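User: Some background: our group keeps a shared notebook of sequences we're curious about, and every so often someone picks one and asks for a predicted structure to add to the entry. Today it's my turn. The entry only has the sequence so far, pasted here. Could you supply the structure so I can complete it?
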Amino acid sequence: MTVVCERVVSSLSPDDMEALCEAVTAGILDGGGFGWLQPPGNQALERYFEGLLLVQERSLYVLREDGIICGAGQLVRPPSSYEAHAATVNLTGFFVAPYARGRGLGRALIQAMIQGAKAMGSKVINCDVRETHAAAIGLFRSLGFEHWGTHPYYARIGGQTVRGLFFSKLLAGEHEAARWQSSIAAPDAGGAPVSSETTKSYQGLMLYPAIDLKDGACVRLRRGEMEDATHYSDDPAAQAKLFEEAGCRHLHVVDLNGAFAGKSTNVPAIESIVKATGLPVQLGGGIRDMAAIERWLEAGVSRIILGSVAVKDPELVRQAARAFPGQIVAGIDARQGRVATEGWAEVSELEANDLALRMEDAGVAAIIFTEITRDGMLAGLDLEQTADMARRLSIPVIASGGVGTLDHLRDLRAIARDVPGISGAIVGRALYDGRISLKDALDVLGSC
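Assistant: Of course. Here's the predicted structure to add to the notebook entry:
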C-alpha cells in the first residue's frame, strides 16, 4: 500500500475528480460533511472543488492510496485584512472515505496538512468537529489538538441538535510557544498603544468604483430611487476602461433595472464591461437563481452579489456558496438598520446584522453593506453600522453608500485600523462628479 498526501495546485484530472467526488459522496452518506446531509451529485461537487482552486485563501489537500484519491482536507487562511489572525489557519472539510478508514490514512493526511500550515507561516491551527464523530475527535486529540470550547447548537440533523467541539494546536516551536503563551493579552488589559510596526503592516482598503446601469447607461441614484437618477455615460465599457487605466484593481457593477425586474436586464452593457478590462468584476442586481449565477460566472464575472434573494431564498445562497466558494457575496442594503429588498423598494423587519450573520453561516465570501438613506447623498458612510457589523463577523465587510469627500475615506481608513474586518469601500457619485479624484482615493485608502 502506497499512501501519498499532497496539496492540489492545478486542476484535477477527470479520473482524480471522479475519485474525489466518489469519496466525498461516501463520506456524506456516512454521516454528512461539507454542510451537506445528502450528496448533491457529482456536477455540484465538481463545481465546488474547481471553485476552491480559485480561492487564494484556501489550500486543498488530497489523500491517495495506491494512486486513488480517498480523502481530502482544506486549510483556510483569514483574509489579508485580518491582521490580528494572520498567524492562524483553519482545518476544514477534512474526511477519509468510509471504505479507506482504519489504516492510519487520516493521521497521515492531518500530519501533511500540519506541515503545510507551518510552511505557510501559521503558528496556530484550528478545527471544529461534531460531537458524534468520535473517531475524528480521538484522532485530533492524539495529534496534540486541545479542546477549548463546545458549541451547544452546532448542527441540526435528523430533527436533533448536535453539539460541536472546537480544537486548536500550537504549531510554534518550544521557545516560540513559550513567548506566545507569555504574551497572551488579558481581557481587561486596557488599550495598549499601537506600535509603529503594527501601523506599518496595515494592508490598506480596496477601492471599488461603482458602475450602476440603467437602460444601458451609467447612472447614479439618490437614496435608491429610480426616478432620481443622474446620467453620466452612454458607454459603460469605456468607463470601466478609464477606471482600470487610473489604477483601480476591481469593479463594482449593478444592474439597476435587473434589481427591480428580478432578472438581468442590462446584459449587453455588462458583457461589454467584462470584455473591456482585465479587472475582476463583482456583479449584482436581479440575480436570483443558480442558472443566472452560473451564466455570469461563465461569462467572466468574478463575484456574484446576491441581495434580495438573501432574504427570500437563503437556501439558494447556501447552495451557491458551496458550489462557487469565494465567488458569492451578500449585498445587504438597509434603511436605518432594516433590510431592504426588490431594488430597495421594500423594507423588511429583518435586522441587517442578523442577516449578515446568517449569510456568514451560509458561506458567502464577503458582505457589502449599504445604508440606503446615505447612498448617492455624498454625506458620508454610516461608519457606526458598518463597524458594528464587521466586529460581529469573521468575513470581510465592504462599506457602501454616501462617500462624498476624501475625508469620508480617511474616516473609514481610521476605523478600519481598529476594525480589520472592514476590507474596502464602494465609491460612485463622488468619482463621477469630480469631488474625489481616483488617484487621491487610491492614495488615501492605500489599496493593494
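Suggested note for the entry: The chain is about 35% helix and 30% strand. The CA atoms of residues 126 and 168 lie 4 Å apart.
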